[in-house]
Automatic annotation (TrEMBL):
This is Metallo-beta-lactamase domain-containing protein. SUPFAM superfamilies: Metallo-hydrolase/oxidoreductase. Residues 43-210 form the Metallo-beta-lactamase domain. It comes from Fulvivirga lutea.
Amino acid sequence: MRPYLLIFFFLVSILSHGQEIAISDCLKIIRLSDSIYMHSCKNNNGLIYFKDGEAIIVSTPDSDHETQKLIDWVQSKYKIVAYVIDRWHPDAMGGLRQVQSNNIKSYSYEGTRFLAKEKNLPIPEFGFDNKLEIQIGNAKVVCHFLGEAHTSDGIVVWFPEERILFGGNEIRNLEGWVGNIADANLSEWSETVRKIKAEYGDAEIIVPGHGSPGGQKLIDYTIELYDFNKNQKSRFAYQVKDLIVLDIIDGFKFIATESKKVQKEVHYKNGLVFFYGKGQSIEIIADLYSYDLKKRTLYVPSGFLKIDSHNRSECFHFNELHMGLRDDEVEYTIVIKEVTEL
């Protein structure tokens, strides 16, 4: 029997479907099928495909350290012939530099390569325009860009022999929040996922970028989650001329009727928040909101959000918004629990 088959049968024997093994305190490996395994660290998911003595990995952990541990684990079994990067965010390509230092071929959508260059990040070695097939043994892996969603460059990765689809952050975990929309195209998200469903509606297992794998319900849930009115009219009627508090902190402009400092937070009542970044103009209107001076995070229990970008405007009511500044290329995140339509 060939050595790689012995290794594969050993792998299968120690890890049955759904079981997990710990590669580090953070990094876990979960078996999804005889040939495909999910890697997860800090709830950030990726996939490993073992086939005919070769391996392909999709998505990196968010650090060089954990990425190297993943590479070492896979290389102890099979030769890695390709590393697929599914989007530009650190939870998908934060370990790309380590991939490259191991002389592993890396692939991504051309949009990801463009953004990586623009943001002075490591650049995946090979790019593709819309669709790429990578050969692995006697099988293939399909990398496919179907439109903007969580980011402008996110792709899905299809394993036809296994009927498994890696949805990345295009697909939300079941019952998950609306999530981080700071780089999202909310106007296109549902339509992009409809295209994914039309193309890969026979996928039996779908792996989201975060959370647990599932079936087609994940796709349907994602379509419904972002299929809301993005041109709502605000129920708030605050006028700037009526507001007396003006604070400018960390790039945020706070205008309100009242403010009160409580330890490391500033609490505001009745007003607006303005922020500019990533080519966006962000406006939030709410009855109550607070800013954590140490963590540089804004919390709004409920309110109205308007995001103006260079090519679109999206505005809607929400419940629970967390906006946080970051020191990396992401700059900031805007995490929303749910959208409400009044």
